[in-house]
User: Which sequence fits this backbone?
């Protein structure tokens, strides 16, 4: 049988669909271009968001506000520079440096703050050296980049150097100090009681049994000790700087991945690790995807003072069951400020001064010997102590290589190893080998 072929030729007598004709005749719309004003706004918003790190911009803005609030300079520092601003800034820096004896870092911060302010004043008109343009009959450049300001800054630097400014490097918080501080905390309040308190609350007790309740003052004391112990364990383990620690939020902790190979853990993301913005600017690589992510495992071998798995989870449960009454929100600070009335303020982080006061009080209360040690233990002590423990003082077989130390501490790959070794060892050598009292009887 011969199969009859079907004609594939289109019939010309059938009229086209009017809808199809309209679709074919449709002319693509021309994309509307934004106005120059809109583009300019986009540029300014982009600069405000990405040119400087948020913390840097916040610090610089504080310097400018303080300068404008001082009595003698209330109306001196305008956003658009005039011919007198270099002299006004030189006078202000002289007052802060020579009269108020501010540190060199403060003077440099004020100078950088005003440089940023006037760099952003009017395009590129106020960039570069401060000078008078004879052709245009106006002052141009940045008043900070003037001979008057430069001379004052150099003079203050010479003054600070000649007076021998006191070194402010922090000492190291040793693991044995952490253990002593825990013992002291337990002598100040019964830390076993909060465990029972949380256990009963998790079991669903709406009202605790008689004799199991806490007074307002007792709850405040327990809260401060638990928070300090959790802060210390976290900083000692993650080697955080103080501002990195207090900016941690509940959303930075991932409790979803709690078990791997039958071992529980949780993960912390240090979003505010120093140098992270610089790493982003250079471009993310595959190895950077895990940077600043730390898995925290139970470590009972570290003792109760340094087991951050225990300390941090216990602190979070205490906040949720005793203070808030509900789970912490993602934007809640992990270590919130505590009001004078004992009420936690989840939207406000601990201050630097509060952390330092806790360290001073704990070191004195724990009876850590030597006033020299007490004076040098500042907020940076946990980072330095944690690094030195893992590199030198951990049990044999558990000490970390320099490469692991470099990664865990967030140091840049280009950091010279001699610099890192100086950070680790030389300061320790200076503190522990001071022979200035060799002639003492």
Assistant:
């Amino acid at each position: 049988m011969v199969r009859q072929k079907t004609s594939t030729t289109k019939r010309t007598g059938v009229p086209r669909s009017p809808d199809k004709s309209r679709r074919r005749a449709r002319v693509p719309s021309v994309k509307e271009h934004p106005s120059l004003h809109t583009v300019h706004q986009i540029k300014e918003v982009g600069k405000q968001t990405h040119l400087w790190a948020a913390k840097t911009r916040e610090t610089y803005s504080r310097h400018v506000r303080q300068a404008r609030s001082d009595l003698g300079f209330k109306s001196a520092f305008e956003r658009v520079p005039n011919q007198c601003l270099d002299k006004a800034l030189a006078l202000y820096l002289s007052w802060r440096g020579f009269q108020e004896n501010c540190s060199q870092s403060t003077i440099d911060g004020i100078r950088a703050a005003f440089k940023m302010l006037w760099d952003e004043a009017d395009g590129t008109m106020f960039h570069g050296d401060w000078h008078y343009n004879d052709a245009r009959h106006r002052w141009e450049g940045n008043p900070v980049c003037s001979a008057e300001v430069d001379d004052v800054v150099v003079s203050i630097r010479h003054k600070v150097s000649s007076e021998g400014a006191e070194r402010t490097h922090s000492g190291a918080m040793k693991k044995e100090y952490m253990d002593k501080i825990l013992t002291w905390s337990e002598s100040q309040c019964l830390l076993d009681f909060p465990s029972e308190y949380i256990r009963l609350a998790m079991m669903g007790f709406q009202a605790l049994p008689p004799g199991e309740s806490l007074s307002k003052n007792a709850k405040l004391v327990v809260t401060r000790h638990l928070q300090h112990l959790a802060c210390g364990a976290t900083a000692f383990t993650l080697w955080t700087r103080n501002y990195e620690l207090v900016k941690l939020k509940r959303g930075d902790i991932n409790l979803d991945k709690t078990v791997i190979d039958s071992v529980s853990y949780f993960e912390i993301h240090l979003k505010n690790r120093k140098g992270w913005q610089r790493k982003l600017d250079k471009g993310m690589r595959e190895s950077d995807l895990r940077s600043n992510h730390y898995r925290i495992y139970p470590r009972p071998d570290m003792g109760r003072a340094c087991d951050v798995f225990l300390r941090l989870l216990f602190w979070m449960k205490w906040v949720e069951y005793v203070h808030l009454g509900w789970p912490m929100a993602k934007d809640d600070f992990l270590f919130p400020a505590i009001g004078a009335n004992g009420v936690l303020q989840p939207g406000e982080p601990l201050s630097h001064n509060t952390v330092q006061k806790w360290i001073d009080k704990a070191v004195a209360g724990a009876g850590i010997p030597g006033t020299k040690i007490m004076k040098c233990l500042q907020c940076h002590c946990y980072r330095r102590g944690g690094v030195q423990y893992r590199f030198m003082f951990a049990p044999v077989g558990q000490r970390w290589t320099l490469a692991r130390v470099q990664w865990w501490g967030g140091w840049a790959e280009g950091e010279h190893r001699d610099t890192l070794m100086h950070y680790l060892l030389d300061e320790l050598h200076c503190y522990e080998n001071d022979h200035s009292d060799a002639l003492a009887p």
About this structure: The radius of gyration is 31 Å. Residues 243 and 340 are 22 Å apart (CA to CA).
